[in-house]
Write a structure and sequence with these properties.
This protein is α+β, with helices and mostly antiparallel strands. The chain contains 8 helices and 14 strands. It has 2 domains: about 140 residues, Fructose-1,6-Bisphosphatase, subunit A, domain 1 (Fructose-1,6-Bisphosphatase, Chain A, domain 1, 2-Layer Sandwich), CATH 3.30.540; about 110 residues, D-Maltodextrin-Binding Protein, domain 2, CATH 3.40.190. About 35% of the residues lie in helices and about 25% in strands. A 7-stranded mixed beta sheet has the order 3-4-5-6-7-8-9, with helices on both faces. The termini are far apart.
């Protein structure tokens, strides 16, 4: 739908917007709590408004679904995406941003009736922009990004695991007898997928990510050659179409490692918590 030259133009839009809307507010921001208990800042709203304005002026045929919109408006947009729909998380990792933790990003995807066509995830702190075009590959700051498959055992792997949204029994089993070497959870789903694509971790598990969190990052991971993706349950039922409902993210940097990882999780996903 869009060419790589346009991808580069969108990257520049995100970089400039983040420089003006995010970086000046980092460590100097007031926070609010949304109805679901998640954190909202003026940076989220400023970034969403700025990116929306820039995209509308350049690609007026596409509409935009942003995280900070009302759910009803999001659902209506999602049902009519044939002409192209931007999906934006203006600040993925808001809690980190508000707390002064330098791990947050901007996630932007373009979807249509066929799927996710384009994805960009910008890390304004490190100056890293991960991007992908469906069927054309993935890039990090314009350089090709390819997953390096591993055939090692689970015990030699680093995992990115978000415990907060896992079933209690599974979380307990991971906490007491994890099969991997070590585990991290940094607080930005979009960047998590990109760090997995870059080989900085080898395993991934998230129990409930939203469309704006994963749309861009999961495409980047897939185009980089990763194994796994988004599922409706821990048995591995693939996501069908697009939804506002949370989805399970399950992935690894190679098919062999993914099979071992998924088998371990599948055998324990329904375990009741003890104690």
């Amino acid at each position: 739908m869009l060419r790589k030259s346009e991808l580069e133009h969108i990257e520049e839009i995100l970089r400039q917007a983040a420089e003006q809307e995010l970086r000046p507010r980092f460590l100097e921001v007031e926070t609010y709590l949304k109805a679901d208990g998640s954190v909202l800042t003026e940076a989220d709203l400023g970034m969403q408004a700025r990116v929306l304005h820039e995209l509308e002026s350049r690609w007026p045929a596409f509409t935009l679904l942003g995280e900070e919109m009302e759910a009803g408006a999001q659902e209506a947009l999602l049902q009519d995406r044939s002409a192209g729909l931007w999906v934006l998380d203006p600040l993925d990792g808001t809690s980190n941003f508000a707390s002064g933790i330098p791990y947050f990003g901007v996630s932007l995807a373009l979807i249509d009736a066929e799927g996710v066509q384009l994805g960009l995830v910008l890390d304004p702190v490190r100056g890293e922009c991960f991007s992908a075009l469906r069927g054309q590959g993935a890039w990090l700051n314009g350089q090709p990004l390819l997953v390096k498959p591993r055939k090692s055992s689970l015990s030699g792997s680093m995992a990115m695991v978000d415990f907060k949204r896992l079933p209690a029994g599974l979380a307990q089993q991971l906490a007491s007898g994890a099969p991997y070497r070590s585990q991290r959870s940094f607080g930005s789903v979009a960047l998590d997928w990109c760090w997995l694509a870059a080989g900085r971790v080898q395993l991934y598990l998230h129990g409930g990510a939203r469309l704006w969190d994963y749309a861009a990052g999961s495409l980047i991971f897939a185009e980089a050659g990763g194994t796994g993706g988004l599922y409706q349950d821990y048995r591995g039922t693939s996501q069908q179409g697009f939804t506002l409902q949370p989805r399970i993210g399950l992935a690894a940097v190679g098919a062999d490692l993914f099979e071992k990882w998924h088998a371990w999780i599948r055998a324990r996903a329904d375990s009741p918590p003890t104690g």
